[in-house]
Specification:
By secondary structure, the protein is mainly alpha-helical. The chain has eight helices and no strands.
Length: about 170
């Protein structure tokens, strides 16, 4: 038995628990949220700055009511991205973005219908979206962590703040 580790726990489980207790896990949750949120915020802004081009691309893919659905996509991406980044309504934002990515991934990255270099490009984008969806699922379960508006608004910062080792 490794000193301080219960026999039923692996060393890795102990490291994760210790990391959360000492704040490292909470920092990882914050950084992870910011990294995932970045793609949604930037994508939402790019849809605003190229509204016409994005609407045309959506129409090419057979999307009906493109302008209405484009506004919806902008709201989901920007709103969900900002909520995720700030850690406000984090679990809900993660689920909403996860659900948003399902049709977006299937419609816009349908690599199986393509050939050549475009097939490889869209397969990479498809797999990237699956990875993002995995991160969103983890966030929907793990929550925002200590460094979030969710935690601040619950008013329990001192009770659940990370405890750093001092010696």
């Amino acid at each position: 038995m490794v000193s301080g580790i219960h026999p039923s726990h692996s060393i890795r489980e102990h490291d994760v628990e210790t990391g959360l207790q000492h704040g490292l896990g909470h920092v990882a949750l914050l950084v992870g949220r910011l990294l995932v949120a970045t793609i949604f915020i930037l994508s939402g802004f790019s849809k605003i700055t190229d509204f016409g081009g994005t609407a045309a691309h959506m129409a090419e893919k057979g999307i009906p009511a493109t302008q209405l659905l484009l506004v919806g996509a902008i709201v989901v991406e920007l709103g969900g991205g900002v909520l995720l980044a700030t850690g406000l309504l984090t679990r809900w934002a993660a689920v909403a973005l996860f659900l948003f990515l399902i049709p977006a991934t299937l419609i816009f990255h349908n690599f199986w219908a393509l050939e050549g270099a475009e097939r490889l490009t869209q397969q990479t984008n498809f797999l990237k979206n699956l990875a993002i969806m995995g991160g969103l699922l983890i966030t929907s379960v793990a929550g925002a962590g200590a460094y979030s508006l969710d935690r601040l608004l619950r008013g329990d910062l001192s009770a659940h703040a990370p405890r750093w080792r001092t010696g």
